[in-house]
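Sequence in, structure out. First:
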Amino acid sequence: MFNARDAERMKRELQAVERDIVDAEVARNGWEEKSWDLDTMIGHKFKELEALSIECNQALRRLKLVQGLQYVLNAKGSSPAEVLGIDYKSTLKPALDSFADDINKSSMSKLEELISLQQQSVENAVKIEAKRNRVAALQSNCDEVEAQVNYLRKETQNYTSRCASEAEKLVEDVEIETHNVNVVEREVADVLETSKLKLQEAMKQRDEEISEMKSNLSETAGAVSDSYKSSLPLQFGITFEANH
């Protein structure tokens, strides 16, 4: 059976669990907002990379290094080559080396421009890869937080169910105890009533017995008195004769 202290303790524990759930949901919302911000940032960077790829493709077309060679960005790529749409080492680098040799003979300024574009492409690919890794880490954290929230929600539901069952059992016990007390009170009232009636009957019987004893005593006293009165003349006569 639970007392008021146990009920208060269970109430405090339930409130603590509810606060933990609220804190977990707030944390999850924070991670989701950060993930959305990061997705937005990656989207902007990807658009910048698209603009750069257009410039690179235009430069490649002007240079006419390899027929049909161009950057075709793929947002779902898992490597720089897949993101950019070409394999730099096997496709672009040999042509660039050959062209660089020609450029070294004709114009150092054009070579520096091409190297700058190459560095920018590599840096952008590295940034995209880093952002992708960051997004994956954030998603993993969000999944972990969501799993914790689901676990806490389930535990809260189980705890609430147990508290409700215990409270229902406590109410049933109180009702049973109340019923038992009522039964005992009725039994005590019946016993008191019965005792009262028995006491009244005994007092009545006692009064009757006392009245009968008084009557018998009165009759006995009258008989003794009559007997004593009738014996007095006889006693006087015997005494008189003895004196003579």
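Second:
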Amino acid sequence: MEKFRKFADPQTGINVFLPAYSNPKTTLIDRLLHSTLGIVLIIIRVPIIFVLILTSLIIDKLLQLIIIQSLKRKIRVITFKIIYRTVLHLVGVYKIDHQDFPSQVNDDQKCLILSNHSSPLDVFFLLQQSAPNFIRIHWSDNEIKFSSQTLWQTIKGTFIEIQPSLDSNGSTLKDILSSQTPAILFFEGCQTNQNGILVPHTNLIQQIQAIQPFLNIYFIKYKDRTLFTPINTVRNYFWHFIILCTNISNGMKVDSVDTEKQSNYANFIKIFYDSHNMKLINQDWKQFIEFKEYYLQTIKASSYKKID
């Protein structure tokens, strides 16, 4: 879209903030048929999904009563795998083309997962994959801080958009990482459309370089680029999830790479995403906030009637 070109990356011309469905090719009849069947799927799927999520929240609270950390971790992994794999099946993700999360990590080794983020399905996949702790970034120009999220905070952020944290609270990455549980960080700071990947913050790389954790990098991707795509950048989060539930199936593919030690983590990350034809875009969440405000104002002011 020409009117949004000013938000594209100057070097590559790529705009990672545009909706993935900017040029939908589905016909009106296809949309009507999809919506009719979708209503039935919503009625069946949504109540079951929310019961499953509520069950996971209750189990997570009960696990706090267990003193033995290793036992607590095993129960959490098993129960979350069952619950959130079922959730994925209910939203149409029946098969995931992916590599298993590395299982041979030393008990005293801190494990960090870096991932792109474009869909609520990302969160469900990661919860069933390794039941990790999710980390939130506290942004600043120079040094960034981090804080661990509870399961409730993670789930809430899947259905309700949470504004970036600009305070100086939080801890260093070294203090946040636990040797018992892998931690997941959506390092871009916002959801993008998979036309490129926002470059990691310089201070994040510096902190990773300093602690040398067992690092796993994910690229979670979706092929669907219609109005019903799993990818979301500008829609209301809850409404987007409802739209996802209208799909008979949602294809997901996850590629990953891991390393125990690197002399240059920034280059390691770049090489991984370059190998999947994903350019690192020298922008950040601030440009996304500006784009979204402009996009919503433009769509509201225009005569174009959106069907979502």
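Remark: Residues 28-63 form the longest helix (36 residues).
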